[in-house]
Write a structure and sequence with these properties.
The complex is a heterodimer of chains A (488) and B (58). Chain A is of the alpha+beta class. In chain A, 57% of the residues lie in helices and 8% in strands. In chain A, the strands form 2 sheets. Chain A has a 4-stranded antiparallel beta sheet with strand order 1-6-3-4, with no helix packed on it. The longest helix of chain A is centred in the first third of the chain and has 28 residues. Chain B contains 2 helices and 2 strands, in the order H-E-E-H. In chain B, strands 1-2 form a two-stranded antiparallel ribbon. The chains are: A alpha+beta (488), B mainly alpha (58). Chains A and B meet through helix 4, helix 8, helix 10 and helix 11 of A and helix 1, strand 2 and helix 2 of B.
């Protein structure tokens, strides 16, 4: 397994690289910056890890292995959720997508020499990214710069006639909770099947709530400012040519974005930067050559460029992706590609190849920490069957894959990253474990509190939104105490 | 620890929100079809990050 392939497979699982265009599409420049952090974080991690003195062997390897197992389990969970979401988007039951992903990873676990497949699978995934991109560019008839200029000049994002939500009509997001849409112009919504709709109309100071029990073919007209809610499973048809509810008001507002709050930026930077440091730098002793760094950096830039261009072409050719908010699985097969025979299903296959490569690279990463067992833990059939099975079961419950990627990175930042920056001195190895435990407890407490609290987008809400910003310094504090010279 | 590479990479990341905060919406000015902010975030910063990571690698 080459260094570049290993780094890419560990860091860029499908839940991370497919989130990149989703974030750019959803947030414009804010999403672009997050993509930039995803690109720079591994370079930063490799630069930092190559600059610090390697830690003295502590003989206490259990905690890092357990912490990394937890991180990898969450990453598996994120990617299997995505597999389920993609399956649902393609019209199959969620469990089938989860079974394909988990089953494939399990089969490679059984085949002990499967590690050599990682570069091949990544090449397959790379080809699977490029082909649909060429198809979209061909449909648009222009390069990425021209496409961006066109998108950034759009007066509004309007529902195309080719949209599945225009004809024949479909669920907004399969397997998710009740949906809400706010309309910016008059819009007639038609039920494609039996549907119970709730409309909240605001007329000046007066608010009217009404319920509609629609049969297939029945319509309800909504006015600007009206809010539509419906239960899961309702299939609806929207009007062609009307602005897409949930989309930015215009291409200009998408391209300019809103001024993102700096607390969120700090949280993301620490979480992703620390996550890369832990995943790529913890316990890694070998030196990275300049050539390896050049190839890895070039590959990261290629994925970043693909993500940005994919988002731009999707905004131009499939503005219905904005309907009700951008969902990452829709980007795996945008509606405009449905008619493109031969390349439409390539991106889901690329995601599968990428996930299989990541599953092997992440197992090997943990195996590399198993100094006493010769890396055997990376092939432990019982352990990895349990992790894959647990992640697959958890994936049946839909959550946001990107949120899980951030949780995994936050956990890695809190438990392992501080020890990369400030490794305990010789003879004080157990302090690394105590520091990691401190990070784990603080991260867990804040993450749980964040689930039960209404987290505000401000500096005060930062520790609950990104617990690693507090947990990692807490762990570093313990390591700082360990680095003090002994008295006497 | 040699700090040059990590610090330069962090400066590159910090450049993006700083351009967004420039007065008179300078980041929104279009140059060759793309806004300055997008030129920086999508083209200049990734290329510079690669250069910093590779050229300063020891």
């Amino acid at each position: 397994m080459t260094f570049a392939a290993r780094t890419l497979a560990i860091w860029l699982t499908p839940a991370a690289w497919l989130a990149l265009p989703a974030l750019v599409l959803e947030s414009g420049p804010d999403g672009l910056w997050i993509g930039l952090v995803l690109l720079v974080a591994p370079l930063l991690a490799l630069a930092v890890a190559g600059s610090v003195t390697p830690p003295a062997p502590s003989g206490d390897a259990l905690f890092p292995v357990l912490a990394l197992l937890l991180v990898v389990g969450i990453l598996f969970w994120a990617n299997l959720v995505l597999a389920g979401d993609v399956a649902a988007w393609l019209g199959a039951p969620r469990w089938q997508g989860i079974a394909v992903g988990a089953g494939g990873a399990w089969l490679l676990l059984v085949w002990r020499r499967s590690g050599r497949l990682v570069p091949v699978l990544l090449l397959v995934a790379g080809g699977g990214l490029v082909l649909p991109m060429l198809a979209l560019a061909g449909n648009a008839g222009m390069g990425p710069l021209g496409a961006w200029e066109r998108v950034a000049s759009l007066p509004a994002f309007r529902l195309p006639a080719s949209s599945p939500w225009a004809n024949p009509g479909r669920e907004l997001r399969v397997g998710r909770g009740p949906g809400t849409l706010v309309f910016e112009e008059e819009h007639r919504v038609t039920a494609a099947g039996p549907a119970q709709l709730h409309v909240r109309a605001v007329d000046g100071a007066r608010v009217t709530e009404s319920d509609w029990d629609l049969r297939p073919g029945d319509s309800v007209t909504l006015r600007p400012g009206d809010e539509l809610r419906w239960p899961p499973g309702a299939r609806l048809r929207f009007e062609v040519g009307k602005t897409v509810p949930g989309a930015p008001s215009s291409g200009i507002s998408w391209a300019d974005g809103r001024r993102g709050d700096s607390s969120r930026r700090w949280g993301l930077l620490i979480t992703l930067g620390g996550g890369a440091l832990a995943l790529l730098g913890f316990g890694v002793a070998g030196r990275v050559t300049r050539r390896e760094m050049a190839i890895t950096g070039a590959a990261l830039i290629a994925v970043f460029a693909w993500g940005v261009a994919w988002a731009v072409y999707c905004a131009l050719g499939a503005p219905d992706l904005f309907l009700g908010g951008v969902a990452v699985e829709r980007l795996a097969w945008p509606p405009t590609l449905r008619g493109a025979s031969g390349v439409g299903g390539v991106l889901p296959l690329a995601s599968l190849a990428s996930f299989l490569a990541s599953s092997m690279a992440l197992r090997a990463r943990i195996g590399a920490l198993d100094v006493t067992g010769g890396g055997e833990i990376g092939h432990d059939l019982g352990l990895w069957s349990a992790i894959l099975g647990g992640a697959a079961l958890a994936s049946l419950w839909p959550v946001e894959p990107w949120g899980l990627v951030l949780a995994a990175c936050g956990l890695a930042t809190s438990t392992l990253a501080p020890a990369v920056l400030w490794p305990p001195r010789a003879g004080r190895g157990p302090w690394g474990t105590w520091a990691g435990l401190m990070g784990l407890v603080v991260f867990g407490a804040l993450a749980v509190a964040g689930q039960w609290t209404n987290v505000s987008e401000s500096w005060a809400g930062l520790p609950l939104a990104y617990p690693a910003v507090v947990a990692a310094p807490a762990a570093a504090l313990v390591l700082g105490l360990a680095r003090r010279p002994r008295k006497g | 620890m040699t700090l040059a590479r990590p610090v330069l990479l962090l400066v590159l990341l910090a450049g993006f929100p700083l351009i967004a905060l420039l007065p008179s919406e300078i980041g929104s000015i279009r140059v060759a079809g793309l806004s300055l902010l997008w030129w920086y975030g999508a083209v200049a910063a990734p290329a510079l990050a690669w250069l910093v990571a590779v050229v300063l690698h020891r």
